[in-house]
Amino acid sequence: MLDAMSTVPAPNQPARLDDIPTISAISVIAEMLSTMLHEGLGHAATAILTLHASGTLCTLAWSSPQDSRLVEAGGTLVNLATALICWLLLRSVRNASPTLRFFLLITMSFNLLAGTGYFFYSGVSDFGDWAMVIQGLQPHWLFRTALVILGIVSYYGAILLIGCNVVRRMGAAQSDARRFRRLLWIPYFSAVFIDGVAALFNPIGMQYVFLSALAATAGGNCGLLWLRNYIPRRIQPCPAQIIPRSYAWIITAAVLAAIFIAVFGPGIHVQG
Questions:
Q1: Is 267 a domain residue?
Q2: 156: domain range?
């Protein structure tokens, strides 16, 4: 009798586990999308449209002799806009499959953490996009302090939004630490892996693998590792949305990752 009872899942506890390869595949696609939106649409496209600039686009950066404050801010603004779109879609697609729900959720997460995390990073380090945005503005210490405060407040809001949606959209009970690790830790390490590998081939310099790629990915997404502790207890989970094995997502991720590393890792020249 006791053995039989021990096999019964707790309330909202999934009877089977989410598929790790599929979670990894979806996460890799979401991180590549976030990175290329930041560099390609946010920086490169803005530079081409506003300055008619030419430069090199890689996974690590947009490099051009012509830049402006708008170009530097463009990456973050595109990430935040993408996060908003994903959040609105996540709220509206009530009958979506677990894999689509998770794709929208983790894409929202990567874009939101990248966007809000950059304020704090640039304010503390005086390096990166928003350091360039405030370059020359005086008193400089005040603008850096404002970035740090904006970063802390917006990043905290981001982890609350992500955590609440993990519960509401994926049905992860807050007490289920194992499922939170699958849904958030695996994406974290998948993102670090794909951005780190692609950055090894960058044309700018190996030091930027640590200063930019890993700082933005490992540091910016670190909230995924601990946000479970900050989710309000009143948030009620939906029925558990278990992510099944999907070879379509896995194959798509493998193909896109090869392009991401081999083509955009070393960079491509874009003529404005």
A1: no
A2: 19-261
